[in-house]
Specification:
The chain is α/β, with parallel strands linked by helices. The chain has eight helices and eleven strands.
Length: 211
């Protein structure tokens, strides 16, 4: 018997969603409707047991925390920045990269007589990171092309995710400090984990067996 209320997944638009869909298909979920070209933001599987909503990556934790979605797939970088109250049971092992401090080779904070200027789209995370280190910072929030910060003199360093490092290298920059590894994570609404445990817990175990 199909449950009256479907399990709702929040999926980030783009590559992470594509890789998440591959895993869900291996779990036996009909994801064919998700592969059709459509502008719809809410889709269901073939039998109505699962519903999928497609949102901006930064919004996934909000939908899950607020209960608009039972589960979600999101990068660890987003979780660190958004700091939402969600359960994070699994590292999905894809979308792997590193959160790093980057700048010109040889740069040192010891040479500064002012606050360190940090360009980043992870403003809350970067501020907290440097507070823990006891370093005063001037956070410059950027939404793209963060590498430009040091290149044009807007910032001393950047805090950003690094995959291959080729963009840094092409702009004369390098990794100065690796903060933490980043990858896609499965997140779950804490209330849903209790009220829909009969459906969610077995699914988590299936995904765990795959990744």
């Amino acid at each position: 018997m199909i449950q009256s209320t479907p399990i709702t997944f929040a999926l980030p638009k783009g590559r992470l969603a594509e890789q998440a869909i591959e895993i869900l298909e291996q779990c036996g979920i009909d994801c064919a409707p998700l592969k059709l070209e459509t502008r719809k933001l809410v889709l269901s599987d073939g039998v109505g047991k699962f519903r999928f909503i497609f949102v901006k990556p930064a919004d996934v934790p909000t939908y899950v925390e607020r209960g608009a979605a039972d589960l979600g797939v999101v990068g660890k970088d987003t979780l660190l920045e958004e700091n939402k109250d969600v359960y994070e049971p699994l590292d999905l092992k894809f979308g792997a990269c590193r959160m790093c401090v980057a700048g010109f080779p040889g740069f040192s904070t010891a040479e500064l007589s002012r606050n360190l200027r940090v360009a980043t789209k992870y403003a809350a995370f970067a501020r907290a990171y440097y507070q823990r280190k006891g370093i005063g910072v001037d956070i410059i929030k950027l939404n793209g092309s963060v590498e430009l910060g040091p290149v044009i003199g807007l910032s001393d360093v950047i805090v950003d995710i690094v995959e291959s490092g080729k963009t840094l290298e092409a702009n004369g920059l390098c990794v100065l400090e690796e903060i933490c590894p980043i990858s896609a994570r499965l997140v779950v609404n804490k209330v849903s984990l209790k009220t829909k445990s009969a459906d969610i817990l077995p699914l988590i175990e299936k995904i765990k067996g795959i990744v």
